Amino acid sequence: MAKKHSEMKVVHKPAAVHSPSLLQRWFIGRPLPTADAPHQAIGKRVGLAVFASDALSSTAYATQEILVILAAAGTAAFGYSIPISMAIVALLAIVTISYEQTIHAYPDGGGAYIVSRDNLGTLPAQVAGAALLSDYILTVSVSVSAGVAQILSAFPGMSHYRVVLAVSLVMFIMLINLRGVKESGFIFAIPTYFFLGMIFLTVGLGMARYLTGGLSTVVDPPALEMVGVSGVTLFLLLHAFSSGTTALTGVEAISNGITAFKEPRSRNAGKTLIAMSLILGTLFLSITFLAHQVGAIPSEGETVISQLARTILGGRSWVYLLMIASTTLILVMAANTAFADFPRLSALQASDRYLPRQMTFKGSRLVFSWGIVTLAMIASLIIILFQARVTALIPLYAIGVFLSFTLSQSGMAHRWYKIGRLGVDEELQEKGSRLQYDRNWRWKMVVNGFGAICTAVVVVIFAATKFSEGAWLVLILIPTLVMVFYTIHRHYANLADALSLAKLQMPNTIHNRGVILPISGVHRGTLKGLQYARTISQNITAIYVSMDEDSDRKVVQRWNEWGAGAPLVVIDSPYREWMYPLVDYIEQATAKNKEGDVLTVVVPEFVPNRWWHHFLHMQNATWLRWALRHVRGVVVVDVPYQVRC
Amino acid sequence: MAKKHSEMKVVHKPAAVHSPSLLQRWFIGRPLPTADAPHQAIGKRVGLAVFASDALSSTAYATQEILVILAAAGTAAFGYSIPISMAIVALLAIVTISYEQTIHAYPDGGGAYIVSRDNLGTLPAQVAGAALLSDYILTVSVSVSAGVAQILSAFPGMSHYRVVLAVSLVMFIMLINLRGVKESGFIFAIPTYFFLGMIFLTVGLGMARYLTGGLSTVVDPPALEMVGVSGVTLFLLLHAFSSGTTALTGVEAISNGITAFKEPRSRNAGKTLIAMSLILGTLFLSITFLAHQVGAIPSEGETVISQLARTILGGRSWVYLLMIASTTLILVMAANTAFADFPRLSALQASDRYLPRQMTFKGSRLVFSWGIVTLAMIASLIIILFQARVTALIPLYAIGVFLSFTLSQSGMAHRWYKIGRLGVDEELQEKGSRLQYDRNWRWKMVVNGFGAICTAVVVVIFAATKFSEGAWLVLILIPTLVMVFYTIHRHYANLADALSLAKLQMPNTIHNRGVILPISGVHRGTLKGLQYARTISQNITAIYVSMDEDSDRKVVQRWNEWGAGAPLVVIDSPYREWMYPLVDYIEQATAKNKEGDVLTVVVPEFVPNRWWHHFLHMQNATWLRWALRHVRGVVVVDVPYQVRC
Questions:
Q1: What are the pLDDT digits (tens) for A562-609?
Q2: In chain B, which residues have their Cβ closer than 8 Å to the Cβ of A8?
Q3: What residues in A contact B580, CB-CB < 8 Å?
Q4: C-alpha to C-alpha distances, A641 to A292, A603, B623, nearest whole angstrom
């Protein structure tokens, strides 16, 4: 499309699109034009499938993680899992009601970062950003590890490949996301409803058996690893509670993605949120109840879900395998959700200049490629470090989610407070506030405020009970990340200042004082450099760093023949260094620069035609350019000499 | 020192020597001037210490490796170790006599590479080079692993740190060698004579006890791991023989280092060789004999040397510890020898242009730093892969040594044949041959020829009996290396051709067609680029790759204000690529180049003042330079813009 803003502008259209390499096309697909960005709205049923996988999938491990902690007080303590789960479901209800309000207040998407930034300011927003980014990474590590644990429950013979399987899955999800998801939400619907079908079948059958008294206990359960080392203390119960709160991770997903819903967006999104929470709460309670009834044992070797499934579904049958497959699939989908959330949030932070600008660039397939790759790399590293063991990862997980819950709800509470002030504070109204008065503001402030307090309490419980197990790492990581964000921000701000034309007079013109031509010998490449130098200056000095007299004499003699009268400076280098003497000479020469003077260093550079040839050469030109980059008043010219050999 | 070869030359002296970083000074030491190269000659006694460590140290594992193989036929088969050792000592005698002749024929150093190159041609020389380089690497891996095995025999509690200890030792030896060895050979003499003292004490005491009937058997020997899986077959005996031939590794060291000896060099070196072989043969036979008498068991947990030492020296006493320490030390010295040999040989091959030129450069401490680091890295990798287990490494080891023995002796035999022809073939004499007639040529040819045949037979036995255990790897590696050497050589030869001035007429002058100035925005950096461009051409075109219309309009408007009348081309990039459209535009522009025309691309480059800032920027200038390096008729100018922020 030819556009004309001014006479000065000429529009050029590239001949064709850059054809990607075969490898790239195979894995990533052909490039997509910017105009192809999707604009598709989804209904409640597909919306549930798209956004619920993260939240629902946590039922696959939350019960087990409660039991792992209780096991310290012996199997008799497993009964406590039921009241603990009830407390968690109550918390779920509070968070759901809070977020339902957010969805209506932020119809364009109200993630914790945006809500904090709008209502609390920059620092809370960056804290929320740090908390969420860490948690998205852990979502990938935990969900994929839990998915692998399901596979290994069904096929224990593969247990040597736990880490390999998990990392391969992460790489697979990364590639899928680098391709970009042009597919409709329908594709997402399949695994979610498959899982819901299988889990409700299992839980329903289990409940029916329980009511008819036909529910047996687990045949041949795994051995309990750590037992009876502690009594039932308040600390232990709170500890188990914190582990169980991982069931709530993912509840915030819908509030991030409201724009994807059909109009009326907020209503549809809100209803979907409530439906999701009802399903989640029911499932979580039922699984915990049934796990207790069948006497499931938390174990690294076989998941509680697998024990439950084979007890209810009649051993390792094909229905059991379908159940395990659906659980694995929903966990992979949960990891996939983080691959949408992490790059989107990091792009948002990068466009606010708190993360490297690269994060804002969309790749050839219209996705934030940098964010996707970064997430996959860090998540894989964590999986390797923790050997893909869910129980080892859980102490790091969820603290970020609850911190962001707290910030988001506090932001909302403050927002309602401001809205309440709209009625009395005219100044606020005059500022052209985007806020709309709401006469229920008091009630809504209380709801969000109560949500904030509850989630804050969970953060404290979590940090206290899991501190020594790994939560300390997150408590160091989040402030560190915030510091890094601020340092990046300061750099960009200073740079914008330094580059600004605001206070610039039309600058003085530059005077080219002459050319310095470093040579490593006299050959065709050198002569091409000399010829180019002669097009930009008459004042040329060649320099040769001499390490032994023999080659020295040869170079001088050949320069006399071919150097076209330009003087040659020979620098002795008794320590066999070549770069330092050269940089030293150039620095001394620039000392004579006046304001606006520039010295041009012309570097003849040999360009080999195969990549491995680079290892056979010293890359002197590259090193010299690198060494000279901080020397003011110097411009480096590469004169390439292409050789076919 | 100011030198004047011609009026054209000006000599510049650097202000000071480049001061190395603190880290570098601490580990490597201050730079040494070229004039500091050592010129010190050593006598026979020090010569023995310097060159014998590699050969003598192999007595620390050769016996054990014979027993490991024989163990497959049960402990009763251990008796065969004595005739096998005798055969190996006979082989040692043959190799020694062969090499004694080489030493007299090549007073300037006659390693297998040089001898093969002189007498057999390029291909055999490169095969010898490949064989020797692989074996030097394995010398480091095997000797250090064997040294660690001694330490672990004395301190079994440290067995978890086997690999860590071995790799740390390699790194330590690397650092020592990067410092360079200015110290006299005297330093080397201490560990060698310490070892000789301790081992002769042990062996002598053992023999005395045996003769007086007071030699007991090993108390509490380690368990035998694999036993009785095979009968005593010819294959088994040959297999054990091949393992034992590792005792001969290092015998060639003196022939490489003749120049280090006092005059008469060849005589002194020859006598040292014979003394070394006598000691080696005696020690090896005695150790094998005594190991059999005390019933030593080959084991990964405790070395045969350790079992022997504690049986003879009265348990784990301090004398025992001294013996173990001296054995560890001599093994480390053997590894150290490879750190002298590998870089020297690779520099030799590099100066013949069969390896990257970097290998010929002496570092700041006058050593071939590249070779030292390469050796340390590969040897460490092998140690990690084989978990520092000597028995696992042995099948790879020694095959290269015997291949190089064979090539070297064949070369010598051929040399004697040519010398014999001197008497009859006048043409040969006229060519100004450096060969001197020797009337004993027939006898000497038979000696070297017999040596060649014997060592060739060992190569075949070795390859056949150890093929499946790992020798296949070496049999693939050596031809692969030779192919790599030839590929490198071809590249350098073609390059020299392409750069040669031989057939060059004084070339046409270059015409600078104009400047292309890619910009990413209009700011101070861009304007500096524009000003520089104006010093070299009046024909300037700015290019901007547009990804969205907003920024597009801003750039055009600001360019109208600041662009000093230069036209601006805006390229639409629907796929959000910036580099491909730019390169495409520049390629199209160069299509109009006539012979000798050049287009200059001026790239304003922002230079941050902290290294980590690089991660916050896209490095567009670097990528563009890289993409343009193959486009003919283009010169790239970096105009750096240094920013403090």
A1: 888 889 998 887 777 778 888 888 988 888 888 788 899 998 887 776
A2: 556, 559-560, 563, 567-568
A3: 14, 17-18
A4: 76, 10, 18
